[in-house]
Amino acid sequence: MPQSERQLQIVEVTKTAMKAREKERVAVLRMVNAELKRVEVDERRELTDEDVITILKKMVKQRQDAHGQFHAAGREDLANQEAFEIALIEEFLPRMMSEDELVVLVERCILENGAAGMQDMGKVMGALKKSGGQFDMGKASGLVKAKLG
Predict the structure, then answer these.
(1) Distance between CA atoms of 142 and 84, rounded to whole angstroms?
(2) How far apart are CA 90 and CA 84, in angstroms?
(3) Which of 120, 97, 96 is nearest to 110 (CA)?
(4) 66-92: pLDDT as tens digits
(5) What number does CATH give the domain 5-90?
(6) pTM metric for this prediction
(7) Which end of the chain is less enclosed by CB atoms within 10 A, N or C?
(8) Percent of the chain with pLDDT over 70
(9) For the chain, where are the E strands, in sequence order?
(10) What SS3 state is found at 114?
(11) Contact at 8 Å (CB) between 113 and 127?
(12) Measured distance CA(65)–CA(57) in Å, rounded
């Protein structure tokens, strides 16, 4: 029996989509539920909300990579399917920071850590991770490089 709030939420949304006969949505939600269950069985433990978020982020990252490859290969049908899956999985993730919010956070971490140059990038990135905000680490890294460089 799922214990985490997010897991319960995903199960409820799956039931609702099944009742509404939303075949594409149900297929993706079942895939998400199966991945969560696989990790639970493999690791022989119940998942926490943090575990579920980590798994969902990994699933989104995989689909973003596939989306880029399909788009580059001219397979828009498959790229669109990946985009649909990304959007659906992201519904269960915490809201990501906007670009402006991320810029403010990066500047605050630079100031708080007294970072003066590229040699302090690791210190700033560590502070960003500990900040608890939800953001794309790739974008954050680029912003930190731009500010310190």
Answers:
(1) 27
(2) 10
(3) 120
(4) 999 999 999 999 999 999 999 999 999
(5) 1.10.1510.10
(6) 0.75
(7) N
(8) 99
(9) none
(10) coil
(11) yes
(12) 12
Kindly tell me the sign of the dihedral angle through the C-alpha atoms of 124, 130, 131, 135.
positive
| Tokens describing residue 144 | 């930190």
Nearest to 107 by CA among 142, 137, 147: 147
Extract the tokens encoding 119.
Answer: 């040699």
Distance between CA atoms of 79 and 69, rounded to whole angstroms? 8
Per DSSP, the residues of 5-47 read HHHHHHHHHHHHHHHTT-HHHHHHHHHHHHHHHHHHHHHTSPP
Residue with tokens 């708080």: 112
The domain ranges of the chain are 5-90, 99-148
pLDDT, tens only, 46-66? 999 989 999 999 999 999 999
